[in-house]
# Entry
Amino acid sequence: MGRIYGDPNSPVEALRGVSFTVDHGEMVAIAGPSGSGKSTLLNLIGMLDAPSSGRIVINGIDVGGLSEDEKAVMRNEEIGFIFQFSNLIPELTALENVMLPGMIGKKNGFDLRKKAIDRLTQVGLSSKARSGASTLSGGEMQRVAIARSLINDPSLVLADEPTGNLDSKNSEELINLMRDLNKKNNQTFAIISHDHKIVAKCDRVIRIRDGMIEDQEDDVGSSDVTSTGDKSLNDKKTLEKLREENKILRTRLGKLEQKRR
Amino acid sequence: MARRFLFKKKGSTIIASSAVAATIFLSIFTGVIFTGVKLGVIDQIADYQVGHVLISNDKGLISTQETHRISLVTRTNPMVVGGTSRITTSADLKFFGMEGVLEQSRISTFGVDPTLEQKASRLSSVVSEGAFIQFQNEIVIGSEILTQAKAKIGSIVEMTVSGLGNDDVTKKFVVVGVSDVGGFSGFSQSAIIHIKTLREMMNLGTGESGSYLVRLSDISNAEEVAEWLKNRLVTSDSDDNTELRIEPIEVNTKSFATTFDQLIAFINLIGFVGMGAAALGIIVVLMMMVSGKTRDIGLLRAIGIKRGGIIVLFMLNGAIIGVIGAITGGVVGSIAIVYLHFYPVAFFGGIAPVVALDPTKLLQPMILGFTISVLSSIYPAWRASRYRPAEAMRYF
# Structure
């Protein structure tokens, strides 16, 4: 798929011919420098924006053919969002913020409340359920955002720089939390991040540069990248090593749909 | 939850609700007051000048037999509480004082029966000083005339009236009372004497009168009673100028009521302009709210709220502003109306508005204000629903 912004006379190609597949239960990192098109890609996957070309298929449904309302329903039921700045509604309590997607989906109030408390318990914030969102710390807000993203049991969770606003301790906790939830709930995670610790925890990393997929690495979490403490995921030697081990599938940089082994 | 989401910043909501409330209050107040003043003036015209039903003829003179017949027939209607004959003419007055003789010409003069007037009108209440006439040599004179003539109660005044044969007849009277404004057209420039005296001076028969006023227990029955009287008193459809003309108060005040209705319509127009200004205020406030909530709108769209949901959310906001404004304006307006109903305050030259406790007069502006609030929120709500989630969430 591709995404072009601006008028036809001076188009800006934010994404060019990007193509990949993410399997159910997979945790994928999308990495790349600033302005490479990561957030654009996530917005397109999350149906927050529409591609200029190509198509997006989620759970077998080509979302390009959906109406705005159908997309809204699909976002509500199938996708959970975690944003860099948590984007909680400050006027509401932590519990109400978690319940919000369920309320939009017209879920039963009692069950929803119970489930929201369960989700807050999962992220270790049951004691803050009735605290105003604006009174929470940055780490707590992100945990609430994670709980909110999971309330409707989405098949896909999209996270845009979830640790970008957190200190290293909170980042570490959040990464572990997301990984645990991914394994426990068998939900698919696509995470945009510069944070090598997050990338290292993911099953696969998709690298983007100048709007194109530069490279993809499988099983990053079990690779030498983290065990050796090498923080440079762009490290050519590491990539070569991984390629030699056949852990990365070479693609025509987005022109082909990659099949995981 | 929606309420807290939308109304965290209460200031703008209070401003918008206040604008609606003020407009509703003014609409209620002006509507009730001006309608009340109109009714008050009509009441005064009825009380002092034409009664609830006025019987007259084109000739301006009802015969003695007709007057007796009218008197007998009207008494049989249970809705009639009184009736009286009146003669109206113009007269010249001469005052004899310390500064010599002062003359006032062509003064509107009423010949009335002081006994029958007690039940048929409130004419005696126009006397602001002294007493109403009782005897044939007494006169009540308007305050303006007395001031100009430098006369006072107890002064002697000479009145000259033209009789039927155009012979001038002059008679002296004692001033017993001073009349003031009444019936919206001023008894301050008129004179009131006994009808018998005026008949004598004008050389009329003992029962002849210029008109006959009928007072009812309820003014709203005027048309019904007028019709009832027509059926019994009007005998033919001839063009004879002695044919009785029986008119309810609505007919006698038609031109005044029409003029006043135009004034009320103009005031209502100003009210609508006010409503328009309030609507604009609501649009501005809601647009600011939408602008301030851009990121949250983006989030709500991202987590699955439909465009219709955003529209409902912001229209709910407009509806809440409308409800708060309508209730506030309605309550304040009700308090003002109830107060004026029980404690009438005189406006416009001493006329106290007749303030009816009519819930529809309250509900109409309240419903209108609420409707305008909801309608005013359509555009901001639509704008909010058009935000693209990805762009909205980039907004800080």
